Structures are given as C-alpha cells and as structure tokens.
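User: Show me a protein chain along with its predicted structure.
Assistant: Here is one chain, sequence first, then structure tokens.
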Amino acid sequence: MLAFAPLHDTVSAAGSALSWLTELLEPLAGGAATAAAIVLFTIAVRLLISPLTVAQVRGERRRAALAPQVRDLQQRYADDPATLQREVFTLYREAGANPIAGCLPLLLQAPFLLVLYRLFSTSEGGTGLLDERLVGVPLGHHLSDGLAGAAGPLFGVLLVVLLAVAWWSSRRARRASAAVGTVAGTPTEGPGAATLGRLLPLLPFTTVLVALVLPLAAVIYLVTTSVWSALEQVVLRRPQAVSSPAGR
C-alpha cells in the first residue's frame, strides 16, 4: 500500500482543489459548478504543459526545415545506410529537433487522467465529489450504468464532440503526413514506419473508445482537453508569414 501513497495523496489534493473551485463557482454556475471546476482544472493542467507543446511544434518546424539537408545526406550515403542513419541523427541533434518530443504532452496528461479517474470512480478524494451531478446525472456515472433520463443525451453530446474533434485531428494529421512525406534515413524510418504512418491518424479516435468506459467526470476532462488540443493546433500550427527581402 505504501507504493500507492503518493497517488492517494495526489487524488486527495485534487479533490480538495476541485472542492474549492466548486465553491468558488457555485454562485455563478449553480448545479453545474463541479463540472465547471473540472473544466477549469483541465485548462490549468494544459497551461502547465503548454511550454512542451510549443517546443513540440518548434521541433517539427525544425525537422521540416532540415528536409533539404536530409535529402542531401541520402544522396551522399545512399550505399551506406548505417552512416546515413548516424549522420541524420547528428543533424537532428545539433539542430535540437527531437523526433520523439511530440509524444511528451500526451504522456504527461496520462497521470492527470489517472488522478481524475480515481477521484471520480473511488472514494479516495474524500470530498463527496462522486455524488455531485450535472443535469441530474452523477459525475461518477458510467455508460454501463444506463442511459435513462438525462444520461443518454448528455453522454451523446459529449461523445459527438469527441468524435468530431477526433475526425478533425485525424484529417489534419493525414494532411500533414502527406505534405511532409516519408524521408528515408530519418530516425523515424524502419520496418514498421509504413504501419506507424497508417496508425497515427487513427490515434485521436482512441479518446472516443476510452470515454466509453470512463465516468462522466473523466469524460468531461477528455472533451475539454481534446477541444483545447484542437485549438492549440489551429493557433500554433497556423502558416507563418515569410518576410520578403525587400521588407527586411
């Protein structure tokens, strides 16, 4: 049990923070105060990891800018794959373009989702948040508990939003992949590269599948973080204006 003590303490701290936010928002949000507190909590989490997201986008732009040099290395070491791989890794490292940095924001969100799941599926929070309701549906309610009353429409709306964001994210990922293309000799190349390229656009839909087994509170978290991610994509990945020599 000692191994889980830090998680229990974190869940208790999150429960206290959500209770405080709920009390703060109750005069404005009324019965939806706890749901609003979850949304604000999610936004705070995303703001905390936003520097990593910005770094991820910058890294992707660095890798795109290095494409001509990578193609030059391909031609130079066409008959020496080992040297080609080593030179490309060196080029990426010197330019600060980490090919796996894109996974960090997603990985860092996982502990927060675990905390919220335990908070709203167990009594660890110790604050009674499990019994709070949104339009009459307990925040600890699962789809498997039934769709009677407002549960059906509420879960339906949330899942539709998740599905729409997943479709948009998948479409954007496919367009980005087609625009960049596959660059042979890069650190991401390998026997499973083609399969990975087909699977990556499908990853956003895993959020919808996960939501099918999570309590309402965690689904609210997923919807908020998914919408936030989509807005980040629009803002951070918008085309950059290229200044002309005359304007310098």
